[in-house]
Amino acid sequence: MLEAFFEGLLVTLAWQNLQFLIIGVAIGFVVGVIPGLGGPVAIALMLPFTFDMGPEAAFAFLLGMLAVTATTGELTSILFGVPGEATAAALVLDGHAMAKNGEVGRAVGASLMSSLVGAWLGAMFLAMAIPVVRPLVLSFGSPEFFMLTVLGITFVAILGTGSMLKALIAGAFGLLIAMIGLDPLTATQRYTFGVLHLWDGVGIVPAAIGLFAIPEIVELASRGTSISKEGAAPAVLNGLMRGVKDTFKHWWLVVRCSAIGAFIGVLPGLGGSVAQWVTYGHAVQTSKDPSRFGKGAIEGILAPGSANNSKEGGSIIPTVAFGIPGSTSMALLLGAFVIQGLAPGPRMLTTHLTLTMSFVWTIVVANLIAVVASVLLIRQIVKLTQVRGSRILGVIVIMVLIGSFAAKNSFLDILVMLAFGALGCAMVAYNWPRAPLILGLVLGNVAENYMFLAVSRYGWSWLSHPLVMVIGGITLLGVILQARREILRRQEHRAPKAPRAEPKS
Amino acid sequence: MIKVGDLLTAAFLLGCSAFAALQTIGWPARTRVFPLAISLPLIIMLVAYFALVAWATLAPQREGVAAIVRGQPEDEAKGWLPDLPRGIVFGAWIAAYTGVLWFAGFMVGAPVMTFLFLRFFGKDSWLASAGLSAGVWAFLYVLLRVLRLPLHQGFINWPF
After folding, report:
1. Residue A280: how many other CB atoms lie within 10 Å
2. Which of B23, B28, B42 lies closest to A186 in CB terms?
3. Is residue B114 within 8 Å of B132, Cβ to Cβ?
4. A406 touches chain B (CB under 8 A)
5. Cβ(A428)–Cβ(B9) below 8 Å
6. What does the pLDDT read at residue A500?
């Protein structure tokens, strides 16, 4: 096992594989920055190029690309308020707020460092999980998955720091939008109005871009200035180092969120869109002063940043061990297994263990290269927030339009994005939280599918499954703690305010 | 003070959820379970919201009720839409942009609209506008021709 672990490192660092890893990282860097063109699109586009490569080089190329898109997708969320990936939408809330307040270097530093730590912890999780992965994954059936989605849905209330009622309404509305499309059981059309495009439901990418990017773009246009409100160029490197230090100052939060991300990555069907919001909600829930979130709280970057990257390591586990893809990217990666003549399963953990271990190292090395490249380019990257608003808008708008279109290659997705954009503008203007809506949209279908699978398979006896009861207990505890917190907060508001110490996580 | 736009947003959500609940009539039982399980509580919450609005209006001294209704801005420093007319013009421009892209495709529509935006909305120089538009065209060319991303090509058969 240990021998294979280090052989995996040598395989990754062998020049014939490393060169493809670097090319993959470069492509992933660019693709991650363009909204909508995420990891799945990158893998789909590049898969044909792996026909002539060996398995080690092919996976170094593809996994290197995939590992980096999650990191660089966060940069556009911070700089422009446009999620480079649907999985980076949570970073818009606090990351972009920091960019506008002239703390872009700190935000980018925190994002990069937490991504790196998250990716490494996710890779460690993958390495450690290999021997014990079988019982872990097999112990989760549809009832347990359903309970996990319920746990995720309860985060809706936590994500609305101002008014819990507004957060619940927004979250329920997101769940309702998730019902658009064909019913998975009977194939009955629901709210499709006969439009073929809606049979597949409302896409997360156009919805996330519309909700989060359009209000920022309209605000930037109406303000007519650069993204950063600070006139002078901020001390970028100082800020960057501060962001790096923040990662270690809040190390326990980063470790917890990386673990949550890796665990969600293991579970098929949940993925990064869920991981970022669950960890964001966790950061809000565990913060001593949740009111800072959405205005530039550093924990709002660290939590989703670390989870976004650790989930990659987690999602490889079921793909490699059972051929069960944890996400769209992993489903496409299965195509690479076929191209290379490999079959996911127990042989990947025995005969091809060195190759599997090279996956771990690929994630580690790819993220290291991406972070070093980002640090080297940071001055140029940060200058973008100082560019005249109108110039940057011309570029952002085309990125947003391409991103919405490219997710499904459908022009109707641009209209969906614009509709969500209008809704997003109204929500921002009138203090309706947007995060619960997108979380509801992400989890709605997953919850429905798993619940019906659980009922079909077990009747209602699944409610007495031990793991279901454990997850249910955690969910209930979270709700009670949140309600208690809300009551205490209101009592505190009524009482005269006393000076408070700097919160730590 | 509750804003009219806030109430309109809530009314829109209430309309959508009522429509969603009504649409389930005639659907198979299994198909309508989840939509009903979501839309009915949503309607109840929105009705409660309007009741709280009425309460906050009739009893302005109940600051706690008003706080629930108002919510909390995501970014208090933002002062959203400082220049509303400019924002509306920009919104109209995005709509026009989408229309031009649909008709002329990305390769032609995007550079043209970028140029028009920079020159007339951003008041940039002719040279800077043309330069950035050419950059947009080159970027799209790479996506369409090199990476073979199937971008929408519109309804005009352009020679490039």
Report:
1. 30
2. B28
3. yes
4. yes
5. no
6. 45
